[in-house]
Amino acid sequence: MVSLVHRLFSVSGIDFLKVLATVGFSSLFVLSAKETKAIEADLSSHLVAITAGFSGDRILLFGSINSPGEVIVVVRGPDTDFKVQRKGQVAGIWMNTASMSFESVPSFYSIASTGPIEEISSSATRALNAIGFNNIGLELPVTKAAGKLADSWKEALLRNLLRSGNYQLENAEIVFLGEHLFRTEFELPANVPTGTYSVSVYHLRDGQIIDARTTPLTVSKIGVEAEIYDYAHLHGAMYGIIAIVIALVSGWIGHLIFRKG
Predict the structure, then answer these.
(1) How far apart are CA 240 and CA 260, in angstroms?
(2) Which residues contact 145 (CB under 8 A, 6 or more apart)?
(3) pTM for the full model?
(4) Alpha-carbon gap, residue 14 to 62, rounded angstroms
(5) Which of 3, 9, 37 is nearest to 22 (CA)?
(6) Cα Rg of the chain (Å, integer)
(7) Are 168 and 181 in contact (CB under 8 A)?
(8) What angle do CA 43, 46, 51 make, to 5 degrees?
(9) Three-class SS of residue 189?
(10) Contact 86, 97 (CB under 8 A)
(11) pLDDT tens digit at each of 261 positions of the chain
(12) Under a CB-based contact definition with an 8 Å cutoff, are residues 184 and 112 in contact?
């Protein structure tokens, strides 16, 4: 078993002993099937730190199941509001002609699975647990839009989110090492939203969930970037004045340099 577990982590270059020290070997793999739960899972790290050189990250999830079945993992970012603009030609000029606001939409959404989710889970299971793009709350109230108009706004929002990389159309692969151990990885783009994410792991059999685990993942700015971000939001007016002063001084210095040249 130890050799299998070592393979589970070494693929991604993660220090095997360090991970075991963090999560505890006994919490992952219990020898007696009667004493363990149907599924156990954890992350290689529960914090993604965004610094000046941040260009994206990769999160490893690892776990085990104590009986045959399928596995689905859903990573969901904090809910936020989105506004979609529609452009049109007015007097030969392209400009925004309409807009639609969506409330409480996941800012990030990605899935990993052992097979196509439509084949390994029932439609009722997906709807109840918000699995899949059609079940994550993108519907508009009929007072805003209905029918084909609502569908067109929803499709526009999905296109924008997919283009940003914060929604991932292709399901990530879940790899089994042996009969019980599994691992998968998620890509976080450079523009990943900050906040607390939920990582939900489902163990399914015959299309139904028999056990589930949810663990938090924090994406946060740290260092000077975090201090500037916090100051800009807490003292917006002063931040704007400082930014204007810096721009003016930089322009004046540049003017002096080029004039001497």
Answers:
(1) 31
(2) 100, 153
(3) 0.71
(4) 12
(5) 9
(6) 23
(7) no
(8) 130
(9) coil
(10) yes
(11) 444 444 544 444 444 444 444 444 334 443 344 445 789 999 998 999 988 788 899 999 999 999 999 999 999 999 999 988 887 777 777 777 788 888 889 999 999 999 999 999 999 999 999 999 889 888 887 778 888 888 889 899 999 999 999 998 888 999 998 888 999 999 999 999 999 999 999 999 999 999 999 999 999 987 555 445 444 445 566 656 766 767 767 766 766 667 655
(12) yes
Which has the closest alpha carbon to 185: 196, 172, 169? 172
Neighbours of 18 (CB within 10 A): 10
Angle at 144 between CA 141 and CA 146, to 5 degrees: 70
Q: Give the whole-angstrom CA distance, residue 234 versus residue 243.
A: 15
Task: Quickly list H helices, the chain.
Answer: 2-10, 16-23, 25-28, 117-120, 123-128, 147-164, 224-234, 236-260
